[in-house]
């Protein structure tokens, strides 16, 4: 019996070791969004969507999504989030297109950052808006989704230049 | 003891009843993507990313994400997906920016469509690429994310006009 | 080598075989509730609870709870629910105690009933109300929780005599 | 392009920030229960329930339920529980009705309390008893469910006056 | 802008399409096991294990594990299991080593087999025995784990030759 | 109304209290494996398995499995793992049987060990290999699965004597 195969190191994936990183307060804010039709916009604002109150449900989806991030992103470390907040803001883009800007804010006291949790929260909220509005048309577009800023941790602060 | 409050109907959310819809073959394809730096692109293609093989992990994340869609999107019906496939394609955008186009394809025999599962699969793959590459810079942008097409069901086929 | 121990049959638990039951439309309605203080009631109705819109979040919790029933109740069969709906109604009980009555309604086309899903939905909504209001006092009481009625399946219809 | 809509602040839900709360030992005990028929009671005690050993399964459901609390209650913080224990006690109520009293006890070293985990544990155990006994009749009633006491944290100790 | 990279087809993973397979009754039985010390054996049989009734908990873990198979095995299709049963049998191996044989049996009416569900159920039960007994020594060995037989589906019946 | 039944203490299961254990760095390594046919071996190594790159997917399954351990093993404490790594190595056993040895390595800073996480990671990887290769024959055998070593914690270090 002899070892005769050595796996290609390129094929390796790992959840990298963070046990020597220190517990500090870390925050991250991310942004996503969704562009919807005038009809979808009106139903959201008037509360006449047949699946219910779109933004209330999307907000819950964003918060619960943040908590499930390490279940969705395979190499992401589990974290005990200390706070999650989701904000919405409408922007009219053209005559008949409306963009819902979604901003998430996540905090943790832990030894790795919460960038992925913030991105996942904003994304889950956007997907939920799509789901609740898709009976009015499937031409909606989600994104762009990106990190706004982060604080804490050895890599220091980050602020996206828009 | 008297009832005296009636909840505002606007506030209601529900998982709408689909019990009278028929079981048919349904498919959906969605697209997401992520724009990364030249360094991130090179590490992905050369297999030198420290967290491992980025696209292999992202593909698994997309497939498992599709299966968890009804856990992520509150008003989404649970479905027993019969197939999920994820494709990647690189497009050079500028001198030093590379866009990874992510296409998901989902099938089911069931009584509601799989648009959300396709969108979720593509999104989970994109978020996973972000996670695995973020040590090379956090300026990546995810999206746009949208439905390419769907077939089956009472509402008929849909094909996005690009 | 000899077999010498036979497990006590009493200790056995199983997810009973339902493969010979037929797929039919099945419904169930359950009720739970929570008795809260006047302050908690006022904050819910005025929308001044610091954790947010209590009933909107509780409704989402009830619906997502119904979908997770087989993950919570060990011997419960997984089911693809076709619809879930949650209703709230306030009843004043005494000068300073308010009871929120929570009614869930669940539908499925499947080979086992949805009684547990209805009970779980109503319960998850009640627990969520407790969570969101507990900063105003922990004396709230949840329940009673019971099945209102069910239809479909071999065991026939059930309607609770109040 | 101008911002023109401002979401109603009432509609906001958030997982409140607890990052400035200190890690201390916290405990909570909660009680739920279920009233069952004489037949159900007899089958539980004699171990002749067709789904298996009711209280053994309910105890596991209570413990695993406690660990999943932040997945069930949307605004609940994830916590690494350090201990969960579930106790059962029968009380005869009338000639042919038996009440199973379910007491849960949860401990954590963390920066928020475990009241919801204790309530969820007791509730999950009660729902499991219902599930395993429902073939003997659906007239069972779950509850009342309430917090018995808690210790630790800034808000101090709580002990319910019965 | 030009496509210039084509992913290596070898790197592809997919949840293969089973939408053209027919719904039939399918069963599978698998076996795992664990070899434990005399002390662990005695504590299990005498009910003196400090974590509780080992086999009762392991049985629940096996059943709930079967239901979560598609969450654990990335390319596994979600299935609505119609029945799961777990059996234990002790075999004395040597003077001071005891082997607990664990047999799982899973049924489904569906369009793909339940081999993985049966293997996962038996495995989850074995891991749970390890967890509950590990304070008495960590030299336990799990396995071998294999499929005993399967019925139903296009690939026909299988029976392992021992 | 009188208490008249006292549950058999033997039947009790609990998630034992670890709140007085100290947070230290803890590691564990476990081993599992799977014996496959020459055809399965060849398809894995040549990348011609129809479900995709077997070892890449198995590695992801092992890592995500480690993170879900407390969801799979009922009395297992939730832990925030700081690192997970999975290694594969082939050993030829006979002319036409190949054994894939799977070694997992898990780290945590916490108040209980990660033996179960390491065992679960190795097992999930082995089950995933079975799933992806089972179309080439179902005679594969998983195991033996055991703990290689652990460090940290009050019970001290452990190293299995092979």
Notes on the structure:
6 copies of one chain form a homohexamer. Helices cover 28% and strands 33% of the residues of chain A. By secondary structure, chain A is an alpha+beta fold. The first copy, chain A, has one domain: Molybdopterin cofactor biosynthesis C (MoaC) domain (Alpha-Beta Plaits). In chain A, strands 2, 3, 4, 5, 6 and 7 form a 6-stranded antiparallel sheet that branches. In chain A, a hairpin with a 6-residue loop joins strand 6 and strand 7. The longest helix of chain A is centred in the last third of the chain and has 19 residues, at 115-133. Chain A is elongated, with a radius of gyration of 19 Å. The termini of chain A are far apart. The relative contact order of chain A is 0.27. Residues 1-10 of chain A have low confidence and may be disordered. Chains in contact: A-B, A-C, A-D, A-F, B-C, B-E, B-F, C-D, C-E, D-E, D-F, E-F. Chains E and F meet through helix 2, helix 4, strand 5 and strand 6 of E and helix 2, helix 4, strand 5 and strand 6 of F. Strand 3 of chain B pairs antiparallel with strand 1 (3-6) of chain E.
In brief, what are we looking at here?
Six copies of one chain form a homohexamer. The first copy, chain A, has 162 residues and is an alpha+beta fold.
Along the chain, the helix and strand elements of chain A come as EEHHHEEHEEE
Q: Supply the CATH architecture of chain A.
A: 2-Layer Sandwich
Based on the structure, what is the oligomeric state of the protein chains? homohexamer
Mean pLDDT of chain A: 90
Supply the number of structural domains of chain A. 1
Find the structural class of chain A using helix and strand composition: alpha+beta
Largest interface: A-B, 55 and 53 residues
- CATH top level of chain A is Alpha Beta
Per the CATH scheme, the topology name of chain A is Alpha-Beta Plaits
Shape of chain A: elongated
**Between the first and last Cα atoms of chain A, what is the distance in angstroms?**
59 Å
Pfam family, one (chains A, B, C, D, E, F): MoaC
Protein name (chains A, B, C, D, E, F): Cyclic pyranopterin monophosphate synthase
Active site (chains A, B, C, D, E, F): 131
GO molecular function (chains A, B, C, D, E, F): cyclic pyranopterin monophosphate synthase activity
């Amino acid at each position: 019996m002899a070892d005769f195969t050595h796996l290609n190191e390129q094929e390796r994936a790992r959840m990298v070791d963070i046990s020597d990183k220190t517990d500090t307060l870390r925050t991250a804010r991310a942004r996503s969004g969704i562009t919807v039709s005038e009809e979808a916009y009106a139903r959201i604002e008037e509360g006449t969507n047949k699946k219910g109150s779109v933004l209330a449900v999307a907000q819950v989806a964003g918060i619960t999504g943040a908590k499930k991030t390490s279940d969705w992103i395979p190499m992401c470390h589990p974290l005990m989030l200390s706070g999650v907040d989701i904000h919405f803001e409408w922007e009219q883009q053209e005559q008949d297109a409306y963009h819902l800007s979604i901003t998430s804010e996540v905090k943790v006291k832990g030894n790795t950052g919460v960038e992925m949790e913030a991105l996942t929260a904003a994304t889950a909220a956007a997907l939920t808006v799509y789901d609740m509005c898709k009976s009015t048309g499937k031409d909606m577009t989600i994104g762009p989704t990106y990190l706004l800023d982060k604080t804490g941790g050895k890599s220091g602060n980050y602020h996206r230049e828009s």
